[in-house]
Specification:
five-stranded mixed β-sheet; alpha/beta; 7 strands; 23 helices
């Protein structure tokens, strides 16, 4: 856009001073270089675009003079109604006028004659836009709403819907992101880029540690190496992480056709959206993962899951879909493994098929499943510790394949216990630590019985005199807590009778629950009439 602006400034003056035949040549060159529509290029080179902006900032009197049907009092009342309606759009304001205007008149906020009032009730949404153009522009600090930086790139990428695929050859993939931010999307967290081939259902998952366009380019390059056939095109959604010059430019330079889905139309990417839940969420769950080490754990998980899913797990493929009234009837082919769809497709070369056959000959489904469970256990530990292990690497536990194979016979007894899925929260009781006053508890009680007004400072001084190597001035708070709880117990015994021996805590300092109970008892006793 900056280059187009500079070119416009350099060419516009020469275009205005040129003759007719010269203007045609300049216009052809300018439209070819910038990609603008010819009519739009004429408006820019002639300076009509600047005049249009100036025309939008017109005063109220000019607007009334151009449209004599609506006078100043109609416009002033319309502005007031617009403000009362909280500045809604004209299409929403139009039906609100019939409700707001009588209410304002009833309370004396607006006073209109019969003719202006009738025009205000009959005004159209387009006329409201014309009358409020200058007001809205001033209310918005004199600026139009800026277009997004990726809008030019997004417009250059053609749209492809679900019905536009028409049984493509292997190599046309849909791409989407799955976030691993847990219950919040703040901060930096890992994401998974999912690529699903439309023809065969072959799916690759690439973890990305941070949201950056360079990481997307790196992940796309890695995906091209993992797919068993050459990629021909990629279909993105409207995420700004895809719709930028770096990613789109790299794809086109690599010979990949780039398309995108419609905004807020998930069904346009139905192939990859189905894999987001059936593969990624099934393997990883909904926990939060941060840092490079979490990305490495996700990479180890997907390295085993890609072979286990593409070589051994059959998947359905839609054959036809038709609508009968309100019902949508779908028919599917028989479930087939993605690798078999690749091997039976005529568009895949024999060299690629031979590599797949060699891969299938050495693949062990039990070993792959054991590696998946090991990676899931590592990720599940990170979920349990809420990211506290993000800063240190841990050596994976050694894998005993014979023990894992034997456990498969009884694994069903524990139910669906995947390490990355949500586990039941088990409350752990607080640890009760022994108090340093346990050894001198009887001595302190004797002092308090003999001298109930004894202060904690005086008691600590006596303890320091008897045990100079054990007590210091830093233990004043501990003695204060002990004496506070003891005095509460003594007050309870005076007013309510002696406490049963089984209810007296053995430790020198009561736990927090017993302290709160004693405090509540004292509050209730303060309300007893004498």
């Amino acid at each position: 856009m900056a280059g187009r602006t500079e070119l416009l400034e350099a060419v516009s003056l020469r275009y205005r001073d040129a003759k007719r035949w010269e203007r045609s040549r300049i216009l052809d060159e300018f439209a070819a270089v910038t990609g603008y529509h010819r009519k739009h290029a004429i408006r820019l080179l002639s300076g009509l675009g600047d005049r249009k902006e100036e025309q939008e900032i017109i005063t109220a009197d000019q607007a009334v003079s151009q449209r004599g049907r609506y006078g100043p009092e109609v416009r002033d009342a319309l502005i007031q109604l617009w403000e009362v309606a909280d500045r809604v759009c004209s299409k929403r304001l139009r039906p609100m006028i019939a409700v707001l205007l009588p209410a304002l008149e009833q309370h004396g906020r607006v006073t209109l004659d019969e003719a202006p009032r009738g025009r205000l009730l009959e005004v159209s949404a387009a006329t409201i836009d014309r009358l409020l153009t200058g007001v809205r522009l001033v209310a918005g600090s004199g600026r139009r709403r800026p277009a997004g930086f990726g809008s030019a790139v997004r417009r250059s990428v053609p749209i492809r819907t679900f019905n536009d695929w028409n049984d493509p050859a292997p190599g046309w993939v849909e791409v989407d992101f799955v976030s691993h931010g847990g219950t919040t999307v703040s901060g930096a967290f890992a994401q998974t880029m999912v690529l699903t081939d439309v023809a065969t259902g072959w799916t690759e998952c690439i973890p990305i540690v941070v949201r950056e366009a360079e990481m997307v380019v790196h992940a796309l390059g890695r995906a091209r190496e993992l797919f068993p056939f050459p990629l021909r095109g990629v279909d993105f959604d409207n995420d700004s992480l895809f719709m930028n010059d770096l990613v789109v430019g790299w794809c086109r330079a690599a010979g990949l056709e780039v398309t995108r889905s419609r905004a807020y139309r998930k069904n346009d990417q139905a192939w990859v959206e189905q894999k987001n839940g059936a593969i990624v969420r099934q393997l990883v769950g909904y926990g939060r993962f941060e840092g490079v080490l979490a990305g490495e754990s996700l990479g180890r998980l997907y390295a085993s899951a890609r072979l286990h899913g593409n070589l051994f797990q059959p998947s359905f493929k839609l054959r036809e879909k038709r609508r009968e009234g309100a019902r949508v009837i779908k028919r599917y082919y028989l479930p087939v493994r993605p690798v078999m769809r690749v091997l039976t497709h005529a568009a895949v070369s024999e060299a690629d098929k031979s590599k797949l056959r060699s891969m299938m000959a050495v693949a062990d489904p039990v070993l792959l499943l054991a590696e998946i469970r090991g990676a899931q256990a590592e990720l599940g530990k990170r979920v349990d510790e809420r990211g506290m292990t993000a800063g240190r690497a841990e050596t994976p536990a050694p894998l005993d394949l014979s023990v894992f194979t034997a456990s498969l016979k009884v694994a069903w007894e524990a139910g669906e216990q995947r390490p990355t899925h949500r586990r039941r929260y088990v409350r752990v009781k607080p640890i009760v630590r022994p108090s340093m006053l346990d050894a001198v508890r009887d001595q302190l009680l004797t002092w308090l019985d003999a001298q109930p007004a004894l202060t904690a400072v005086a008691a600590l001084e006596r303890l320091r005199a008897l045990y100079p190597e054990r007590f210091t001035t830093d233990h004043l708070r501990t003695v204060q807590r002990f004496m506070k709880v003891r005095r509460l117990t003594m007050a309870r015994e005076v007013l309510l009778g002696p406490m049963p021996q089984s209810a007296v805590p053995a430790a020198g300092v009561m736990g927090p629950d017993k302290t709160m109970q004693a405090a509540d008892d004292m509050k209730s006793l303060s309300n007893i009439p004498s």
